[in-house]
Amino acid sequence: MKSKITIIALSTVAIIAIVFSIFMIKAHGDGMSLGEYFAKLFRKDTEALDPGVAAIVNGEYIYDTQIETFLRFSPGTAKEDILEGLIMQKLLMQEAVKRGCDKKVTDEQVESTINSQKEALKQIAELPISQQPASIRSLLEAITESGTTIDEYYSDERAWNTFKNMLIATALTDEIADGETDGVKIMEKIEAFKAELRKNADVTIIND
After folding, report:
1. Half-sphere exposure at residue 122, Cβ-oriented, CA atoms within 13 angstroms
2. Total-model pTM
3. Tens digits of pLDDT across the chain (208 residues)
């Protein structure tokens, strides 16, 4: 049961993790924080490193730069849809912390996940480029361009936090599933949970 739930949880955040992994590597290569790197990428005024706020979710900010990041990778996606997705991600992480899911994730679990992912990436790197998934190839290219090795990337604190958040999301999914083993029913529970979470949230969307 746990393996099915884990697959569902990780599939919902895998693309996000890959996108932000690429930007974390590039930011690291430029000696910047991720926020500073986003500012450099998406704002003409590089001295204005405080990005604009797109929404406030239960007192926490979502920034315009986050939306722009996803627009670059999914240019056909409506900005409103991306913002709504980011709002839900924020709500889910807030709920996970509220329930103590972050405390259920141990350093050993994070390290084990990182090691398995690292070895898998190394194996993919050995494949001919034509056989590498496009998203993974982008990650490998970003690592190479930054002058960082795969081992160095996975030892970075920001990579650690990315995988820890993935495991926290998995822990929350386990709680939502509440013992259910049917994949379809699990997804129905998750969608109902998300709808209720969104309904009760204090969300302010900042108009352009």
Report:
1. 12
2. 0.66
3. 544 444 443 443 444 455 555 555 555 555 555 555 545 544 444 344 345 889 999 999 898 888 887 777 666 788 899 899 999 989 999 999 999 999 999 999 999 999 998 898 899 899 998 888 877 887 788 778 778 888 988 887 878 888 888 899 889 999 999 988 898 999 999 999 999 999 999 999 986 5
The domain segmentation of the chain, as residue ranges, is 2-109+157-205
Given a contact cutoff of 8 angstroms between Cβ atoms, the answer to whether 14 and 25 are in contact is: no
What is the C-alpha to C-alpha distance for residues 142 and 145, in angstroms, rounded to an integer? Answer: 5
Question: Quick one: CATH architecture of 2-109+157-205?
Answer: Orthogonal Bundle (1.10)
Q: Locate all alpha helices (DSSP H) within the chain, ordered by sequence.
A: 2-29, 34-42, 64-73, 79-98, 101-104, 107-125, 134-145, 150-155, 157-177, 183-200
CA neighbor of 173 nearest in space, from 158, 198, 155, 194: 194
Q: Say if residues 159 and 153 touch (Cβ distance below 8 Å).
A: yes
